[in-house]
Protein backbone atom coordinates (compact mmCIF):
# COMPACT_ATOMS: atom_id res chain seq x y z
CA UNK A 1 0.00 0.00 0.00
CA UNK A 2 1.36 3.39 -0.92
CA UNK A 3 1.89 5.84 1.91
CA UNK A 4 -0.14 9.06 1.81
CA UNK A 5 1.34 11.45 -0.72
CA UNK A 6 4.09 13.70 0.56
CA UNK A 7 3.11 17.35 0.28
CA UNK A 8 6.52 17.98 -1.23
CA UNK A 9 6.34 16.32 -4.64
CA UNK A 10 10.11 15.87 -5.03
CA UNK A 11 10.01 12.95 -2.53
CA UNK A 12 8.00 9.76 -3.10
CA UNK A 13 7.42 7.50 -0.09
CA UNK A 14 5.88 4.06 -0.46
CA UNK A 15 5.45 0.60 1.04
CA UNK A 16 5.45 -0.86 -2.49
CA UNK A 17 8.76 -1.91 -4.05
CA UNK A 18 7.49 -1.20 -7.57
CA UNK A 19 7.03 2.47 -6.67
CA UNK A 20 10.81 2.96 -6.71
CA UNK A 21 10.35 3.34 -10.47
CA UNK A 22 8.98 6.82 -9.71
CA UNK A 23 12.63 7.94 -9.50
CA UNK A 24 12.49 8.29 -13.29
CA UNK A 25 9.90 11.08 -12.94
CA UNK A 26 11.89 14.26 -13.76
CA UNK A 27 10.27 16.06 -10.82
CA UNK A 28 11.22 13.40 -8.26
CA UNK A 29 14.59 13.67 -6.51
CA UNK A 30 14.15 10.89 -3.95
CA UNK A 31 12.24 7.62 -3.57
CA UNK A 32 11.84 5.66 -0.35
CA UNK A 33 10.65 2.06 -0.13
CA UNK A 34 9.77 1.21 3.44
CA UNK A 35 10.23 -2.43 4.38
CA UNK A 36 10.23 -4.18 7.77
CA UNK A 37 13.49 -5.09 9.53
CA UNK A 38 14.99 -8.48 8.71
CA UNK A 39 15.37 -10.23 12.06
CA UNK A 40 18.38 -12.36 11.09
CA UNK A 41 20.35 -9.30 9.95
CA UNK A 42 19.37 -7.20 12.95
CA UNK A 43 20.40 -10.06 15.23
CA UNK A 44 23.69 -10.50 13.41
CA UNK A 45 24.62 -6.84 13.79
CA UNK A 46 23.62 -6.85 17.44
CA UNK A 47 25.81 -9.90 18.14
CA UNK A 48 28.72 -8.52 16.13
CA UNK A 49 28.53 -5.21 17.99
CA UNK A 50 28.30 -6.90 21.38
CA UNK A 51 31.39 -8.98 20.60
CA UNK A 52 33.29 -6.02 19.17
CA UNK A 53 33.38 -7.57 15.69
CA UNK A 54 31.55 -5.25 13.29
CA UNK A 55 34.85 -4.03 11.81
CA UNK A 56 35.10 -0.89 9.72
CA UNK A 57 33.06 -2.11 6.78
CA UNK A 58 34.29 -2.87 3.27
CA UNK A 59 34.19 -1.83 -0.39
CA UNK A 60 33.63 -4.05 -3.39
CA UNK A 61 32.68 -3.84 -7.06
CA UNK A 62 29.88 -6.37 -7.47
CA UNK A 63 28.37 -7.98 -10.54
CA UNK A 64 24.61 -8.51 -10.31
CA UNK A 65 23.78 -12.16 -9.77
CA UNK A 66 27.03 -13.05 -8.04
CA UNK A 67 27.25 -14.09 -4.40
CA UNK A 68 28.60 -11.53 -1.94
CA UNK A 69 31.79 -12.61 -0.21
CA UNK A 70 33.08 -9.92 2.12
CA UNK A 71 35.17 -9.88 5.32
CA UNK A 72 32.44 -9.93 7.95
CA UNK A 73 32.46 -11.76 11.28
CA UNK A 74 31.33 -15.40 10.96
CA UNK A 75 28.25 -15.29 13.19
CA UNK A 76 24.65 -16.46 12.73
CA UNK A 77 22.87 -14.12 10.33
CA UNK A 78 25.86 -13.24 8.16
CA UNK A 79 24.47 -15.14 5.18
CA UNK A 80 21.19 -13.21 5.46
CA UNK A 81 23.14 -9.96 5.25
CA UNK A 82 25.10 -11.22 2.24
CA UNK A 83 21.85 -12.27 0.55
CA UNK A 84 20.20 -8.90 1.16
CA UNK A 85 23.19 -6.99 -0.20
CA UNK A 86 23.13 -9.20 -3.31
CA UNK A 87 19.38 -8.57 -3.74
CA UNK A 88 19.81 -4.81 -3.40
CA UNK A 89 22.66 -4.94 -5.90
CA UNK A 90 20.39 -6.74 -8.38
CA UNK A 91 17.60 -4.23 -7.73
CA UNK A 92 19.91 -1.28 -8.30
CA UNK A 93 21.35 -2.80 -11.46
CA UNK A 94 17.84 -3.43 -12.82
CA UNK A 95 16.88 0.20 -12.24
CA UNK A 96 20.06 1.69 -13.68
CA UNK A 97 20.93 -0.84 -16.39
CA UNK A 98 24.50 -0.91 -15.06
CA UNK A 99 26.28 -4.28 -15.01
CA UNK A 100 28.78 -3.38 -12.27
CA UNK A 101 27.88 -1.89 -8.91
CA UNK A 102 30.19 -0.20 -6.42
CA UNK A 103 29.16 -1.31 -2.92
CA UNK A 104 30.23 0.22 0.39
CA UNK A 105 29.23 -1.13 3.78
CA UNK A 106 30.08 1.61 6.27
CA UNK A 107 30.31 1.08 10.04
CA UNK A 108 30.14 4.59 11.48
CA UNK A 109 30.49 5.83 15.04
CA UNK A 110 29.86 9.44 14.00
CA UNK A 111 27.98 11.38 11.36
CA UNK A 112 29.71 10.84 7.99
CA UNK A 113 28.17 13.93 6.30
CA UNK A 114 26.34 15.94 9.00
CA UNK A 115 25.59 18.96 6.77
CA UNK A 116 22.83 19.00 4.19
CA UNK A 117 24.39 18.46 0.77
CA UNK A 118 23.91 16.99 -2.71
CA UNK A 119 26.14 14.16 -3.94
CA UNK A 120 28.06 14.54 -7.21
CA UNK A 121 26.81 11.23 -8.59
CA UNK A 122 23.98 10.02 -10.82
CA UNK A 123 21.82 7.78 -8.66
CA UNK A 124 22.69 6.28 -5.27
CA UNK A 125 20.93 3.56 -3.29
CA UNK A 126 21.20 3.69 0.51
CA UNK A 127 20.05 1.17 3.10
CA UNK A 128 20.76 1.79 6.77
CA UNK A 129 20.73 -1.55 8.61
CA UNK A 130 21.41 -0.17 12.08
CA UNK A 131 21.16 3.25 13.66
CA UNK A 132 19.38 6.36 12.35
CA UNK A 133 18.67 6.42 8.63
CA UNK A 134 19.58 9.15 6.16
CA UNK A 135 17.70 12.44 6.52
CA UNK A 136 16.51 14.48 3.57
CA UNK A 137 15.08 17.92 2.86
CA UNK A 138 12.51 18.24 0.06
CA UNK A 139 13.43 20.76 -2.58
CA UNK A 140 10.52 23.10 -1.88
CA UNK A 141 11.48 23.22 1.81
CA UNK A 142 15.06 24.33 1.11
CA UNK A 143 16.95 27.39 -0.08
CA UNK A 144 19.47 25.77 -2.42
CA UNK A 145 21.55 28.95 -2.49
CA UNK A 146 22.63 28.11 1.07
CA UNK A 147 24.14 24.73 0.11
CA UNK A 148 27.91 24.80 0.39
CA UNK A 149 27.89 28.02 2.41
CA UNK A 150 29.92 27.98 5.65
CA UNK A 151 26.82 28.52 7.69
CA UNK A 152 23.65 26.75 6.59
CA UNK A 153 21.45 29.18 8.47
CA UNK A 154 18.36 29.81 6.34
CA UNK A 155 18.82 26.66 4.25
CA UNK A 156 15.88 24.90 5.90
CA UNK A 157 12.66 26.73 5.13
CA UNK A 158 10.40 24.16 6.81
CA UNK A 159 12.04 22.02 9.54
CA UNK A 160 8.89 19.91 9.82
CA UNK A 161 9.53 18.69 6.26
CA UNK A 162 12.83 16.97 7.13
CA UNK A 163 12.37 13.23 6.55
CA UNK A 164 14.32 10.27 7.86
CA UNK A 165 14.56 6.75 6.48
CA UNK A 166 13.75 4.00 8.95
CA UNK A 167 16.23 1.11 9.31
CA UNK A 168 16.11 -1.36 6.39
CA UNK A 169 14.27 1.11 4.15
CA UNK A 170 15.58 1.39 0.58
CA UNK A 171 16.37 4.97 -0.38
CA UNK A 172 17.12 6.17 -3.92
CA UNK A 173 18.74 9.60 -4.24
CA UNK A 174 19.39 11.51 -7.43
CA UNK A 175 22.68 13.37 -7.45
CA UNK A 176 23.88 16.40 -9.35
CA UNK A 177 25.07 14.08 -12.13
CA UNK A 178 21.64 12.63 -12.93
CA UNK A 179 20.58 13.75 -16.45
CA UNK A 180 17.95 16.44 -16.14
CA UNK A 181 18.12 16.51 -12.34
CA UNK A 182 16.72 19.60 -10.67
CA UNK A 183 19.85 19.88 -8.56
CA UNK A 184 19.78 16.49 -6.82
CA UNK A 185 18.35 15.27 -3.51
CA UNK A 186 19.37 17.30 -0.46
CA UNK A 187 20.29 14.99 2.41
CA UNK A 188 22.58 14.44 5.40
CA UNK A 189 23.84 11.72 7.75
CA UNK A 190 22.55 11.84 11.35
CA UNK A 191 24.86 10.95 14.23
CA UNK A 192 24.34 7.50 15.78
CA UNK A 193 23.71 7.00 19.48
CA UNK A 194 26.86 6.47 21.59
CA UNK A 195 27.94 2.84 21.56
CA UNK A 196 25.70 1.85 18.63
CA UNK A 197 27.48 2.19 15.28
CA UNK A 198 25.48 3.16 12.24
CA UNK A 199 25.71 0.44 9.58
CA UNK A 200 24.99 1.81 6.11
CA UNK A 201 25.08 0.21 2.66
CA UNK A 202 25.65 2.51 -0.32
CA UNK A 203 25.45 1.40 -3.96
CA UNK A 204 26.66 3.39 -6.98
CA UNK A 205 26.93 2.62 -10.68
CA UNK A 206 30.34 1.63 -12.04
CA UNK A 207 30.21 2.14 -15.81
TrEMBL record:
Pfam family, one: DUF1826
Source taxon at top rank: Bacteria
InterPro entries cross-referenced by the UniProt entry: DUF1826
Protein's recorded name: DUF1826 domain-containing protein
Amino acid sequence: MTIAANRYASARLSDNLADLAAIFDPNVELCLYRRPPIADIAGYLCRAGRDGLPGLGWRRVLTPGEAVDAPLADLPGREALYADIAWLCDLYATLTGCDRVGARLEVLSGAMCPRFHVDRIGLRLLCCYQGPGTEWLPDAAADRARLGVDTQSGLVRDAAAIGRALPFSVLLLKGAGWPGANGGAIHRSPAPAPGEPRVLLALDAVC
